[in-house]
Amino acid sequence: MGLHEVTLRPGFWQRRQHTSRTASFDHIEHWLERAGWLGNFGATVEGRRGREFSDSEVYKYLEALAWAGDPAYEDRFHAIVARVAAVQQPDGYLNTNFGRPGQAARYSDLEWGHELYCYGHLIQAGVARARTHGHDDLVTVAVRAADHVCDTFGPDGIGSVCGHAEIEPALVELYRVTGNRRYLDQARLFVERRGRQVLDDIEFGRAYFQDDMPIREARVLRGHAVRAVYLASGAVDVAVETGDTELLEAVARQWRATVARRTYLTGGIGSRHQDEAFGDDFVLPPDRAYQETCAGVGSIMLAWRLLLAEGNPRYADLIERVLFNVIATSPSDDGTRFFYTNTLHQRVPGIEPAADTLVPRAASSLRAPWYAVSCCMTNLARTFSSLAAYLATTDDDGGVQLHQYTPASIRVGDIGLDIDTEYPADGRVTIRVVSAPETAWTLTLRIPHWATEATLDGVPVAPGLAAVRRRFTAGDTLVLDLAVRPRLTFPDARIDAVRGNAAVERGPVVYCLESLDLPPGLTVDTVRLDPAAEPVDRDGAVIVTGHIHPGHDTSWPYGPPPAPSLADSVEIPLHPYHRWARRGPSTMRVWLPTT
Amino acid sequence: MGLHEVTLRPGFWQRRQHTSRTASFDHIEHWLERAGWLGNFGATVEGRRGREFSDSEVYKYLEALAWAGDPAYEDRFHAIVARVAAVQQPDGYLNTNFGRPGQAARYSDLEWGHELYCYGHLIQAGVARARTHGHDDLVTVAVRAADHVCDTFGPDGIGSVCGHAEIEPALVELYRVTGNRRYLDQARLFVERRGRQVLDDIEFGRAYFQDDMPIREARVLRGHAVRAVYLASGAVDVAVETGDTELLEAVARQWRATVARRTYLTGGIGSRHQDEAFGDDFVLPPDRAYQETCAGVGSIMLAWRLLLAEGNPRYADLIERVLFNVIATSPSDDGTRFFYTNTLHQRVPGIEPAADTLVPRAASSLRAPWYAVSCCMTNLARTFSSLAAYLATTDDDGGVQLHQYTPASIRVGDIGLDIDTEYPADGRVTIRVVSAPETAWTLTLRIPHWATEATLDGVPVAPGLAAVRRRFTAGDTLVLDLAVRPRLTFPDARIDAVRGNAAVERGPVVYCLESLDLPPGLTVDTVRLDPAAEPVDRDGAVIVTGHIHPGHDTSWPYGPPPAPSLADSVEIPLHPYHRWARRGPSTMRVWLPTT
């Protein structure tokens, strides 16, 4: 559904979108200037600053501005586009880090150079602009870049791919808005070329950039998580536009295996710090869970494409999980700090990074204003700007499908729906028909997989899809109750890192324990959860029953089985994981050992 | 005890030492030439190959040759020394990677340049030569380099340190063999300077190179594990030579905390791949346990220095654990392949690296012939060459202390002892007096902490030290029985990654399960151990009782508690961890989930 057809109204997501479209936009532009990444457009070779992919942050910001479409930012938008356009070469080449005297040659380092990756984000920004505004200066730049890519990397050109996928979905999207099939063909060529060892082996192995095996042969997503989901997104785009059901099923199969074996409870992906990569099956340590915010963004991109292609509500289930537990977690309430990585276990209280300071590493123990690599904040911004598009779809039959629940107005053709809810705090969702055609049509509602006690207008509905087909009349109201209440969740026995633990979820929201909610001096690692006691709601928190086991120091931490220790029962309050570290430094656990 | 006073005789360690001193020496020299790291001495700037620290591999090989003292390698030794000496500058500077036109300036990158680190290994090689042979050409090169370091980094010189500690213990060792106090003073200066943020902040943070806080203030070892133990070794050397008990206790305190909270069951250290670093307290995941072989070498260096300084048998206990479970694990039986990292959980069968091929990454799923960074093999070689020195010590009172048990001959002053044993396969150690003075003296035996049923000549002795003071006569025999038998070991409840698991140990040796020992098609991750059943010896393996739980695929691996499944009891054979991956690709676990 287009962004002009869905509007968020005040609620969980609208608040965050508003902060992103104001405070975060200003914060991003401040830092793009300050770090020199905007200044690189027009800078001398010696004056260039930042990493090899810093151009892409400017493009992602442009994409966020384009989706937001706020007239107040229109002058800024054109000013940046002008700086970018001024650097584009006559043949369409555009990158501040390569190709000039004193720089490495164009495409001399496809493994790490990120030139095609940067084009990808430039083109996505152009697509956003074309979709929301029509063809203008940014679209022209993007089309020229895309033509250059096709000229250079076509069937008779450089027979390789970029170390970081992203150009693939961008080219298909550009095909969709321009109708120029050349872009689709080039995207397909990139998708098919990768996996045939066209890139050099590197320290992390070729799986890092998915060049270890052809995408049609892979069983599961692997390597660098962001690269993996961007590539898979592009492959779905290619498959859908070319009717390639084999390719679509290959990606869907990998998605299913990844969700079943390589995804955190939060929906986050990427276990490893070293290479920002997936671990092996069931390697999901909460300690230093990498869970890059950008991988969450990419995971939504992928699941959304699969949802459109196949309609299975599982995809929307995962999107919801990622939204509430990764996307909502990363940014600070004021929109000017963020998490790059999202650990599920903080053992030492974090340290607040100084205001207005760039953090040289991806992991910060508390949200930070900016990082040496700051991909996540612009990625969040473009996601928040386009968030309304993920709520609902229409089908050829004139029906409407609601995938996510948040206050919103939907106006598509003759159909008008207003949605009101306090979700996820409360499970009740009211859908009011504002306008409707004279004929019968089908309203389909996703019932999340955890909502085993959901009702629609008082009638039990099972997880999956609940479809209501009838002639609706303006003023009709449907009440969906997803019966949100806290529950204990246990991990598959094969996830070694959380054996003997349980977590608390409530609706789509994962909860956590912070040491701020424990008596002074206790860390979260002393808590043992009683798995037989039901968690309950109280004052906005979830209360679980447990025991405190401080542990005692030994000179060597391995030996005979420890004697069971008895401790009094205590009540322990948990809060949503996405709220963690907002009250100051704390230790934190999502998974709690059971007694 | 000097290397001329202790000789290994055929047994567990002598076999490995022999392989190292022949096959590994040849293999190392082959690769040093092939990779160009030897050729760098004399190469043009353009022709230089390898990483910035590759000079150090040549120096560690020289150290290994020096300790071995094999006349058959004497010509090779001098030929290499001549190549090294030819590159030394008139002022003593010596590094193939810096300082020439077209290279970065000397000491322009102390964070990563490794210049002082390379000197450290050069000086250690010189010390080994001085100790085993006397002052010759290598010693001259080392002394000139050390003088250059003192000239350049003295109280009025560059007020910083090297990003990788190693020069510190080397300078104290050079002081010991030369008596020139200047080297000791410089080592002390380096030890005291570090920790005051004299190096730049980096992606991994200043703790990576222990520049986050002064060593006297630290609670525990942290950052890059090899850097941490090398620095701590140098600090102990400085403390001992200057009588600085505060500094000694600071390091001992950090060692105790590290052993209690940051050390694997194998004695290995370093949890993280990203920065080859310690994790936080109790972060000891078996999956991708980094446990760099070099960190094992450095851990022995540190524990040995603390043992000499304080005499506590805990230090020798740890050395034994590292020897049998890290040092013995890394090299292949033929001495031409090795593990750089030592995982405790292999989830996917490894892939045999091609013969004569350099592996571009530190982690190889099976032992590999050479790596882009190949620090471990030369480090193993110098350790095997000097291994006999770790077996025993003498004291001012004329006594002898036995710290490690392996067949050996000890000849120190009037005292001659021959030690025979099948240890660690069997716990019986026979100590035969070959010669002895006419007066009483004390023979002290370490009783390992796990040897709770040990006897000496049939009389129970408790873990710790067993001292026998009397007048010994040639022909006297003592029989120590350490009662080696398999036992189940459980982890401290705070080690999250192995909650609900147990491991099997037998004497000092940690055992593991390999899928080769399971029925075809089963992986090690299906096994559950019955913690109530005693493990037993059978045919060289340890047999435990357990169950097979294959697990079943679900679309989402989190949910209600899984129903307990019943499975028949099976016998499962385990073998020493140091033997793993010697029979071909296999999956492997050290920690087994309990039922």
Automatic annotation (TrEMBL), chains A, B:
Domain of life according to the entry: Bacteria
Domain Non-reducing end beta-L-arabinofuranosidase-like GH127 middle: 400-482
UniProt keywords, alphabetically: Hydrolase
Pfam name, any one: Beta-AFase-like_GH127_cat
Domain Non-reducing end beta-L-arabinofuranosidase-like GH127 catalytic per the UniProt entry, residue ranges: 5-387
Residue intervals of the Non-reducing end beta-L-arabinofuranosidase-like GH127 C-terminal domain: 487-593
GO molecular function: hydrolase activity
Protein name: Glycoside hydrolase family 127 protein
Species of origin: Actinoplanes hulinensis
